[in-house]
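User: These chains co-purify. Model them together.
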Amino acid sequence: MNLPVEPDSTAKLPLEFTDNHESLKILGFWSFLATDLLLFASLFAVYAVYQSRVGMQGPSPDQLFKLGPAVVETLLLLTSSFTCGLAVYQMRRNHKRGTIIWLAVTLLLGVGFVTTEVREFVSYIAMGDSWHHSAFLSAFFTLVGTHGAHVTFGILWAITLIIQLMGRGLTTVTTRKMYMFALYWHFLDIIWVFIFTVVYLSGKI
Amino acid sequence: MSFKRSKRAIRFIFMALAIGLSVSGCGNDFVLLHPAGPVAASELNLIEITAATMIVIILIVWVLFGIALVRFRDTPGNKAPYRPLWDHNKKLELGVIAVSVVAAVIIAVPTWNKTFALAHVPKGKSPIVIDVTSLDWKWLFEYPSQHIATVNYIDVPTNRPVLFELTADSPMNTFWVPQLGGMEYTMPSEVLPLWLEASKPGLYWGRSGNFSGSGFVHMTFNVHAVPASTFNAWVRNVKTTQPKMTMADYRQLLKFNWIAPRYYSAYPAATFPAETHGFTLEGGMYMEMQPTPK
Amino acid sequence: MSSLLALLFPPSTTRNMELSADVLIILASAAIIFYLTRWHRWKYLWREWLTTVDHKKIGIMYLIAAVTMLFRGGTDALLLRAQLAVPNNHLLGPLHYDEIFTTHGTIMIFFMAMPLIFAMFNIAIPLMIGSRDVAFPRLNAISFWLFAFAAFLFNISFVIGGSPNAGWTAYPPLTELAFNPGVGQNYYLMALVVTGLGTTATGINFLVTILRMRAPGMTLMRMPMFAWTTLVTSVLILFAFPPLTVAMVLTLFDRLFGTAFFTIGRGGMPMMYVNLFWLFGHPEVYILVLPSFGIFSEVVATFSRKKLFGYSTMVYSVLAITFLSYGTWVHHFFTMGAGAAVNVFFGLSTILIAIPTGIKIFNWIFTMWNGRIKMTVAMMWALAFIPTFVVGGATGVMLGAVPGDYQFHNSYFLIAHFHNVIIGGTVFGLMSGVYYWWPKVTGRLLNERQGKWAFWLFFLGFWLTFMPQYALGFMGMTRRMYTYSHGFGWSSLNLISTIGAFVMGAGFVVMVYNFVWSQIHGEIDVTGDPWNGRTLEWSTPSPAPEYNFARIPVVTDRDAWWAMKQEQKTNVVQIKPQEITDIELPKSSGIPFLMGLSFFVFSVGMVFSWWWIAGAGFLGFVVCMLVGTFDYDDHKEVPRQEIQNTESAFGRLQG
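Assistant: Joint model of the three components:
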C-alpha cells in the first residue's frame, strides 16, 4: 500500500489519499478489519462446531429458524451496501449533498436491519429459545448478535459522520472518515453474506 | 577463560550431576527412566533419541559460542582476524541449514512411526477394559467385563494390554501412570481411550496431571500389576466381600473431597457414558476414536 | 450491607497476607497523594505523563509498569517456590497457592512481558526507522492506558473480591460457575479482554508505522532487524488476539449470563476453549520471543562491532516462523485425543519451526565470529541468551516429538521448558534491550558494575532454578501441585530450585537498585551514541527531543548510522539554521486516560455484575469516542525558533 506522494500524481488521487496522515489511517483501518475478520472467523468456527450440539430438548437450527426475517435482513443490508457505494461515488464527484443523502439512506436501511434482527431475536426468546438453552443457541445469538452490534456501532458512526459532513464539508479528514465507514459497512455486508449462508441456509437444509 | 579453567568447570559440572543423582536416590525415583511396560519403554526410547540428537546440537552451539567468546574478545593485542564487513558465507549458511534439517529428520522419522504405532493395541492381543471417570477429587474405575468398581486403586494383569476409557464428571484431569506410559485427558461428555500394559509385576503410582481445583493434588492412585491368576483371584475376592455401588453411592462420590481406596462388587451402568457423539469404543484405539460404521 | 462486604471480601481473602497488602497499598497511595499535593505535582503529572502521546514517554511508562509487574509476579514466584521448598509444607494452603500460581502466570505473560516488549517498541522503533512518531500517537496512548487499567484491575482482585485460581490457561469447566463461584475468574477474563484490545491497537499502530513511516531510502531490506521482528510481531498480534478475545468473552457469557459454551451438559464443549486459547497461545509464544530476537541482532552486532551475519536468512527465518507458528497450536494438547494423524502433523510442524530458530542462533554466533566482542551489561544479557535458549529450544523439540510429550505433558519438564524459553529468550532479550536503550530515553548510562552483579545473580539463579525442574519432570512431578510428600525423591531438587529462585530475586533487587542509583548518580550520556551504535536512534541526542529528528536522515545502507560514521558524514543528521521549518506534532490529550478509566469502570461493573456501574463505564467510553471524533484540534506546531534553540543547545546546528 505504498502510495505515491509526488505532487503530480497526488492530483489524480481521491481526496482522502492526498494527505499523508489521513492515508495512514486508511491502512490502519484495513489492519483493523483484518483482525476483526479473525474475530468473526473464530465465532464462525465456534458456531460450525456447535450447530449440532442442541442439548437435551433444545431446538435444532432447522426447527428454530424462520427464513422470512433473515431474507428481509439480507435485502436491507445488501441494499444499504449499494447506497453506501453511491455515497462514496457522490463524494468522489465532490457532491456534498448527494453524499449526505445517500449516507442517510444507508443509515436508515441499517436501522431497518437492526430492528428486524431484534424482532427476530425477541420472537425466538418468546418461544422460550433463549441462549441459555443449548450450546447451539449460545453460539447462534453470539455470532449473529456480534454482527448486529457491529451494525449498531456503524449506525452511530454514520450519524457522527453526517454531522461532520454538514458542518465541515468534504475535506481530507471527512472524506477519509467517510471512506473508512464505507470499508466498514461493506465488510459487515460480506460477513452477513456468510452468516446468511452458514447459519440460516445451511441450518434449513 | 583459559583452557585449564574450562576443564575445571567441566569437572565441576559432572560432580554436580553426580551429587544431584545420588541425593535423589541413585536414579530410582526417575520414574520416566524405569518403564515397566511396552508403551512407556517405547516412549522412553523416543525421548532418548530426541535427547541425544538435541545434546549434539546443544554441544555444537556451546562449543562454537565458547570459541567465539574467547577468541574474538575486544582485548588489546588480540591477533584473531577482525572483519567488520563479513556478513555472509553461502557454504556456512547452507551447512547450518543442513545440520538443522538432518537433526529434524532424525527426530521426525521415529516420531512419525511411534505415534502411529502407539495408536493401536497390538494386534492379536485382547485387552482388558477399564472405564475411568475422574471426579472431584478422586478416580473411579469400573471393570465392565468383571462388573466390579474401585476408587483410587486398580489391579491389572501383567502382559495383557489394558484399555482405559477415560471420561470425567468434573473439570478436566489427565490420567497418568508414568512407569506404564504417557498421559491422556479426561473430559466431561467425551470419552478418550488409552492403552497401557505392564510387563512386570509391581506397584506403580499414578496421579492426575492437570489442575482441577484445590484438592487436585490428592488425586493419586496405585496400579497393582499382578499375574493373571492373582488378578482373577482379586476380582473374585472383591465380588464376594465388597458392597454394591448404588446411584446414591455414586452421588456421594461426586462430593468435593478425597477418600481412601474403595471397592465395589457391582456398579450402576448409568455412571459411564455408553456412547458419545457417534463414536463407539470398540476399536481398541489409543488416543484415537473410530467412527461407528452405520 | 453485609452481603456487599461478603462479595468484596469473601471468606477466602480475609487472611493476614491480603490484609497486610491492603494496608501497604493504602499507605503507599496516601504517600503518593501526599507527595503530589505537597509539591504541587498533580498538574505536572497530568500534563507531562497522563496525557502524553509522545512515544518515548509512553515507552517509559510501559517500562515502569512492566518492572512493577515483574515485582508482583516475582513475589508470587518466590511464594510458590517457598511453599515447595520442603515436602508437606503448609506455608500456603491450597486455596492460596492456586490463586498465586494463576496470578504469577497471567501477570508475567500479559502484564510484564507484553508491556516490556511494547516499551522496547515505543522507545526504539520510531527513532530506529527515522520517524518523528508512531502512525497513531493517540491510539498509542489509548493502548497504554487500556493495558495500565487492565493491569490495575487484575491486581486489585488480590485485595477485593478474590483472585482468579484456575491457572493462567483457565480451562473450563473449572472456570465455570459450578466449580468456580465468586468473582476472581471474572477479573481474569475482563482484564485479558481489555488489555487484549490495547495490544491489538498496538499491533495496528506499529504495523502501519513500520510500513509507511520509514526514513527515505530505508527499504524493507535495509531495516534494522529489530524493526523486522517488530513488524512481524505486529502481524502476529493482529491474527492471534481475536481468538483469545472470543475465548474470554464466551467464558464470561457463561459465567455472567448463563450461556452454554463450555459447561458440562447443554452441549457445551470445553475442548473448544482449549483450541481457541492455543490458537492465540502459540503465536503468543512467538509474539513474546521475536522482539527479543530482534534486540539480540542489534546488540550482538553493535558490541561485536560487526555487521549482522546472514541478514536476509534472518529475515526469511522470521517470516517462516511467523507463518509456521499458526500451524503448531495442537502441540499444547497432544494428549486430548486428536488422533495419531493430527498429532503427527502438529508434531512435525513443531519440529519444523525449530529449524529457522536454530539457523538464527548460528547466525548470532557467526556475527560474533571475526568481530571484536565488548562485554557491556547489554551484551552479557544477549550472550547469556545463546547457551540458555538453545537448551530451551532443544527441550521444546523433545516436547514436539509426540510420544515424548505423552510423558512430559503438564510435568515439571514442561514447566522448565517454557521458563527456559520465556526467561532465557524473552526476558534476557528485554533486559538486554533495557540496558542498551536506557541511555537513549533517560540520558544517563546505567552503572555497569551494579549491572553485572544483577546479571550474574539473575543468570546463575535462573540455571539453579530451572535445571532441577527438568529432572523433576523425569521423576513424575506435575505442575500446579501445592505440596508433595516424602518418598518420591523430589525434595532435594525442589529445595535447590527454591534457592535458585531467591538468587534470581536478589538479582532483580540489585537491578532495580541499579536503575534508581543510575538515574541519580549515573554518567550523563553527552554524545547520544554511547555504544558506537549502528542504527539511526544513536544519531539523535540522548534523550531525543520531542520531535526526534530536526532533519529526517536519508538512508543509504543497512546500518545507516554506522555507514554515516564510516564515511565521515555524521553531519548529515545536523540541520542548517536556515533550513529549519515548523514541525507538526500530535497534541497531548486526556482522552486516552479517560478511555482507560471508562473501561476500568465498565470492567468493575462486569466483574461484580453491577450493571449500572458497567453502564456508566460504557457511557464514558461512548463519550470519549464522540469527543475524539469531533476533536479536529489534535495537532500542534513546534515553532522554528524553539527547534533552533534545542538543536543549538545540543550543539547540532550546521555551520
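Residues 37 and 642 of chain C are 31 Å apart (CA to CA).
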